[in-house]
Amino acid sequence: MSASGSDARKSPTIFLIAAEESGDRLGSGLIKALRARLGPAAKIVGVGGRHMAEQGVPSLFPTDELSIIGLAAIPKRLPMILRRIRETTDAVLKERPDILVIIDSPDFTHRVARRVRARNPSIPIVDYVSPTVWVWRPGRAHKMRAYVDRLLAVLPFEPEIHRKLGGPPCTYVGHPLLDELDTLRPNDDERKHRLAQPPSLLVLPGSRRSEIKRNMAIFGDTLRLLRAQGVAFEPVLPTIPGLLDRVRAAAADWPVQPRIVVSDDDKKAAFRSARAALAKSGTVTLELALAGVPMVTAYRVTEVEAFIARRVIKTSSIILANIILGENVIPEFLQQDFTAEKLAPALRDILADTPARQRQVDAFARLEAIMSTGGKPPSELAADGVIAMLR
After folding, report:
1. Where are the chain's structural domains?
2. Cα separation of 218 and 63, whole Å?
3. Under DSSP, is residue 375 helix (H, G, I), strand (E, B) or coil?
4. pLDDT tens-place string over residues 277-303
5. pLDDT, tens only, 267-276
6. Which of 124, 211, 216, 302 could form a disulfide with 250 if both were Cys (CB 3.0 to 4.6 A apart)?
7. Homologous superfamily of domain range 181-370
């Protein structure tokens, strides 16, 4: 232990690792909650992005270089990834924190955690966000017990899943989107805008460079088909600053130029006013569901990845809202079904007043109760879990 028990409690050192945008946001909320509980004397350091940096925790290195997706993208960037894993591990061991918190991105953060545990077993390790053991590779749950002391789950069914699979002790702390309900849901004027003509259509191709490259052309073709069929809409495309130039270039030949928004405030405003969405499957689909925006989702990976996925995925849907609700209310078009010819009619259905649209609206109304944390913000519950594990 780097300090006496009393000194560690007065001014603990907490090391956070968040390797991607979603984890960076979680880390930012956790930092706020920890500082509210522990006071300014607490030392918080680590690896993260712009949101954690805004909370006074600059990153050891730029994490946008880790935002890769797909097996095909890994080999050429593997030396850099391995170097960053070594550097992060060394930084943790040098700091000798009172606790290490790894946030999401298990391909990176768990490799660091295993190395830290092997070289200094006295450092408690908390994992904030469970790997998707309920989708594939369930054996990971039991293996995590060797290097994760406490798992903080953001989905309500995960503690029971880990109990059944022999995973580490797991507590549901709530999804961070529950903190944002007031900014996601429309006021009276925005509710009217959802009914206005032409309707606002959110277009969400992804938040990684490879996803922009993979998805933008087909999304553009889908809008072209809709327009050719006489469907009126105004596309709005939220993105992040680092992808703005790529998104603009990829949308340059779209038949209807999208209004591209970058700031969080503009993104939330777009969600509140949108009639429907075309989205790459991922966390954003849960954000849309909690905002009450019906959607059509799509996802495509390489054929090698698809071959592997068909043999290991254990769920009937990859959409979080579908899994939480226990029914596949959101249509998903995967691999060979990810075509403009299939996406366009599905989108036309949810832009209009149809049973398909109403089914999603009714299902989304149940989500908040299923995901409830009893009124305490998820970031505060996560901070409670971290503080409880401080050595």
Report:
1. 5-174+373-388, 181-370
2. 28
3. coil
4. 999 988 899 999 999 999 999 987 555
5. 999 999 999 9
6. 216
7. Glycogen Phosphorylase B; (3.40.50.2000)
